[in-house]
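Objective 1b: paired records.
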Amino acid sequence: MTKRFSPTVRRRRLASEMRRYREAAGLTLEQAARHLDSSHSRLSRIETSQVGIRPPDLRVLLELYEVPPDAREVMITLCRESRQRGWWHGYGNAVPEWFQFYVGLESEAAGLAIYESQFIHGLLQTEQYARAVLHAAVNPLPPNELERKVQLRMDRQTLLTENGLRMRVVLDEAVLRRPIGGPATLRNQLQHLLEVTDLPNVSLQVLPLAAGASVLNSFTIIDFPDPADQAVIFVESLTGALYLEKPEEIRDYTLKFDYLRAEARDPAQSTQTIAELVKELT
């Protein structure tokens, strides 16, 4: 099993620990930033993992917070690791900045809980289907950039086969009927879904068309193996994404996902639905 390194997760954990140590020291953002000869807004961005921090600056803050020496070295190691480049940087601008954060989280996730109302999720797509989805973008992509995006999507799928990433997926039935790329592409995509659902770490359920009242935007709940790393809700939009981390947001989306699973057909019935749709397209 190969685990891909993610500086994103390290930066997020570092930011959380920095905030915890500052609050334990009884210091406000303004007080800590003044000691660092920096601004309140910059330290706030560091503590929310929007930007990184250099090891020398981190040492100054850890001394101010009176963090024990052994814990300081752990923090410095996290800091250095958080400043490394992620594996996805090899794909250049095929990974927009707003999506880099997601890929970094996904790379070290223990599990994903996914609701999709528009497309098959990227980790479950065939090359043909992925190419058709990307080709339909609002701003057409140059052929070479489109192919880099397709290959990135295929590369991410090793998380399922090599890393054993757990996926619980609820697909709106409309997604299975939407002829993206044409009937042949859709048929191959549905056949691929039948193969993927044989993996022990993948559970797929179909939300019937009749469950119209349950429909909402697609979202992904990302969980991590280390309890210190809080779950994240990823909600993609046309030009970017929302990353939700507040406890009440995580609770609400988790409850919604549980509701969707209860409304959806069970995995065996869902497999049968997909198989029937394949027959219709043959």
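Objective 1b, second protein:
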Amino acid sequence: MKKETTIFGIRAIIEAIKSNETIDKVFMQKGLHGELYKELESLIRSEAINASYVPIEKLNRLTRGNHQGAVAQISPIAFHDIDNLVMSVIESGKTPLFLLLDQLSDVRNFGAIVRTAECTGVHGIIIQKKGGAPINGDTIKTSAGAIFKMPICKVDHIKDAVFHMQSSGIKVIAASEKADNYLYNVSFKEPCAIIMGSEGRGINPSVLKVVDDQAKLPILGEIESLNVSVACGAFLYEAVRQRS
């Protein structure tokens, strides 16, 4: 287990990437130029590292050090390989239950989902390398430490995880308010993976096209949707109910 670390300075971040540190996200100042800056950008692209271009004020809030226009967060956890994780769960004889998060952006939602997933026996969470919430102090706190117990994998695109699950005999179910079926009419008893979408957009339409099934929650009030972490809890506990 590693402590959360923020590093700053373009050369320091370049060396961290070359040393195979697990970089969770890089924040880069808008409008900068220069050879070192270009080298960092090239490394970020080649290693598919999550990056955001931000105003200098954002960088100044992240660190008081001489950041030179770049700040990076080293992940406090080591990520698992999806091939090895799925195979180990199947070989254990357990009925796989995985959770796929399609670019969830809020760290507190992410932490709350990790906590619920650990409590409901989820075997692993798969996230996308780019566009999702970083794993930082807020994630750790909201997860109540569950982030250190839950295997987490990163993939280039959530569709990669969908296809991997399907090729391993694991049904993929999307939690979507556009679904025809309520979650109570969908079977979670067999090996399955549940996809939750981002707070604003939901699940990417291209991902919805390749899933095996879709399900929604009944909404009886005037508000059209639930917070994603609450909705995720409802889906996971329905899976627990069906499997018990």
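The mean pLDDT is 92. Strands lie at 5-8, 23-29, 51-54, 70-74, 97-101, 124-128, 152-155, 171-175, 192-196, 213-215.
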